[in-house]
Amino acid sequence: MIQMNEHRQEKNSQYFIVDSTAIIHHFIFERKIDDNEVLIIPEILKEEIISFQAKSNLALLSEERQIIFATPTESAVSLVTNSAKESGDYSSLSKTDLNVIALSQDYPNSVVLSDDNAVQNVCNKLNVKFQSFQFKIKHQREYFWKCTVCGSKFKQKVDSCPDCGSPTKRYYKKK
After folding, report:
1. How far is CA 130 from CA 1, 35, 118, 124, in A?
2. Are residues 42 and 92 located together in one domain of the fold?
């Protein structure tokens, strides 16, 4: 296991940024990792790994493969947060999800491994390569919330309409 500051990016290395679904559901073990490939795992992901099985998977990865536990730069997190807010995915993303995508900004030409549709959607918006194991988005989506009564539309998530107080529902338009 290598810490980010101890690892020097090399031209011939391929970086795969791993989210928790890849570890929890064993997907990372189904993908063959070559010698020149490095797994990057956000430091914060350790907080999401709770079950014994998931902790065992992470420990096994740490022993068997070249892994970097990393924390993204603040500028990368800010860029990803703004993009997620623009696409309407922000309310669906955890802090770990934001870190996963942000690391792709710190490691250019990396690939994000995730089955999370919101992660994939923001990656797509930022032109970040991603791979999924089971669930892959087909189109870039931009989300908005609409009042179920008066029809007012909102770019950001609101639980109830500020105009009439009714609940809102999430919709998307395909790009």
Report:
1. 23, 20, 12, 8
2. yes
Asked whether residue 136 is assigned to any structural domain, the reply reads no
Q: Is the pTM of this model over 0.85?
A: no
pLDDT, tens digit, 9 for 90 and up, residues 116-150: 889 999 999 999 999 887 767 676 777 788 899 99
Q: What is the pLDDT of residues 78-117, one digit of tens each?
A: 999 999 998 888 988 999 999 999 999 999 889 999 888 8
Question: Which residue matches tokens 């980010």?
Answer: 4
Render 60-124 in DSSP notation, one character per residue: HHHHHS-EEEE---HHHHHHHHHHHHHHT-GGG--HHHHHHHHHHHHSTT-EEE---HHHHHHHH
**CATH number of domain containing 77:** 3.40.50.1010
Q: Pull the structure tokens for residue 117.
A: 């549709």
Q: What is the DSSP letter of 149?
A: T
> What mean pLDDT value characterizes the chain?
82
Query: How far is residue 49 from each of residues 30, 36, 111, 144, measured CA to CA in Å?
Result: 19, 26, 21, 31
Same domain, 112 and 58: yes
In a domain, 169, yes or no: yes
Label residues 15-48 b or e (16+ Cβ within 10 Å = b). bbbbbbbbbbbebbeeeebeeeebbbbbbbbeeb
Instruction: Indicate the number of domains in the chain.
Output: 2
